[in-house]
Amino acid sequence: MNYLTQDNEKLISVVSELNELLADYHIYYQKLRNFHWNVEGRNFFDLHEKFEQMYNDARTKIDEIAERILTLRYHPVSKYSDYLEISSLQESDSLISDKDMVHFLLEDHKSLIEKMTSVLKACEEAEDEGTIDMIGAYIRELEKSSWMLNAWSKEAKKTETVPA
After folding, report:
1. Domains of the chain as residue ranges with CATH
2. Per-residue confidence in pLDDT tens, the chain, 164 aa
């Protein structure tokens, strides 16, 4: 049964972009797990918890992206070797500073947003409103997470109290 109104030919580019995003999210997810396990220092408690929140969110998005590909009547890429091949993200070392971890995640966020923008362009061509809606929400959430990580990475400023 053809329950979609989109042209199958136009959806091929959407599915291709979504599979690349799926690969990116798998690498990103594993990087977050790596950082969660290996963060050390004074920021351990804050970052250990934050990285766990982030990898749980990434795990949910992985499932949603794969299910969206299935909804579009295609099959998601599902081999880790394929993820490593098609992802624009790189694996990371484990024993790095907390500041480097946050820096690498911010770089990944930039790449993920660029990929999501590419997905949106393919969706517009295919008139795929369902995927546009999903990806738009992902971009908004990732931008907020990026803002928070960026704020964390700044040096604290001394504030002066103003006399009353």
Report:
1. 8-152 (1.20.1260.10)
2. 455 667 788 899 999 999 999 999 999 999 999 999 999 999 999 999 999 999 999 999 999 999 999 999 999 999 999 999 999 999 999 999 999 999 999 999 999 999 999 999 999 999 999 999 999 999 999 999 999 999 999 987 766 667 76
Tell me the torsion sign for CA atoms 52, 54, 56, 59. negative
pTM of the model as a whole = 0.92
45: which 2 tokens? 């408690």
Measured distance CA(163)–CA(158) in Å, rounded: 16
Q: Which amino acid is present at 134?
A: M
What is the rounded radius of gyration, in angstroms, for the C-alpha atoms of the chain? 18
Residue 21: both structure tokens together = 């995003």
Token reading at 134: 């999903």
